[in-house]
Design a protein that fits this description.
About 80% of the residues lie in helices and about 0% in strands. By secondary structure, the protein is mainly alpha-helical.
Length: about 280
């Protein structure tokens, strides 16, 4: 029974990633993507925040704090994984620039596929130095479904609008099942993180990454808040993909990904509400 649940977890994670990326692509138009990315300065700052500041923060925390090795590895994986597909929802809650959040999500997802296979072997001790084993699953399960979704949207916006709810429903369901399985299979290890400093390290990492994104943002509060949220919310889908394929015998890695992401959601939702109040509007208007 336990082995069956482990197999189910290994299946639901890539299903979640593929459908999540496909659903995101089905909701994207090339004009919507291109417009907010015409500012070279904003693109450069977004890349610096997510692929210099965030990885550096993860590396610093892993080096300074007395974390378990597996927890440190999980933190480093999140440090290199950007482009979380939930960013547009956070941006809407923050009354930020939703169009920019969609473009930023795509930019960071594509950049993560290029960044992770090169940087993670340097950041994470013991991870394969060969980039292709890391690049292949990212291409197949993230970039190709995303590109396919965008292509369908460009070919027929009406058909994409009809298909997207079903794909999104599968994505949401598989995410719930994957998280439930991963939490259930690793419950003892997850409970054991209490009092170890792992959750605190995750909270500090998310908050510091969001602060770095905010500091590097443009003067516009609407794009600045989105960059802050986009830098703080790491891409757990990509990190889980690497973790489940490269650390099958190290539950602490997955536990750190889950603990940091769940704690980070609380931090970022609070930040989104704060940004919304600062914009002079109330959430839900």
């Amino acid at each position: 029974m336990w082995e069956l649940l482990e197999v189910a977890a290994k299946v639901t994670v890539p299903v979640f990633v593929v459908t999540c990326m496909a659903a995101a692509g089905l909701g994207l138009g090339l004009r919507d993507i291109a417009a907010p990315l015409r500012s070279g300065r904003l693109v450069a700052l977004a890349l610096v925040a997510n692929f210099v500041a965030a990885p550096a923060l993860a590396y610093l925390l892993a080096a300074v704090l007395p974390l378990d090795r597996d927890h440190a590895v999980g933190l480093l994986l999140l440090g290199g994984a950007a482009g979380a597909p939930f960013l547009p929802k956070l941006a809407a809650a923050a009354k930020g620039d939703v169009a920019f959040s969609v473009a930023l999500m795509l930019l960071l997802t594509v950049a993560s596929v290029a960044f992770m296979p090169v940087a993670l072997p340097v950041m994470v001790p013991g991870l394969s130095a060969e980039p292709w084993p890391l690049l292949r699953p990212l291409l197949v399960t993230m970039l190709l479904p995303l590109a396919a979704g965008v292509a369908v949207r460009e070919w027929s916006g009406r058909w994409a609008a009809r298909v997207r709810p079903a794909v999104a429903a599968v994505s949401n369901a598989s995410m719930i099942v994957a998280v439930a399985l991963l939490v259930g299979l690793n419950f003892s290890a997850l409970a054991a993180t209490l009092g170890t400093g792992a959750v605190g390290a995750g909270v500090v990492f998310v908050a510091a990454s969001a602060a770095a994104g905010y500091a590097l943002g443009t003067p516009s509060p609407h794009t600045r808040s989105v960059l802050a949220l986009g830098t703080g919310q790491r891409n757990i889908a990509a990190a889980l993909l690497i973790a489940t394929q490269n650390y099958p015998g190290a539950p602490g890695v997955v536990v750190m990904l889950l603990a940091t992401t769940l704690a980070g959601v609380v931090v970022l939702l609070g930040a989104a509400r704060w940004f919304a109040k600062g914009s002079g509007k109330q959430v839900g208007e």
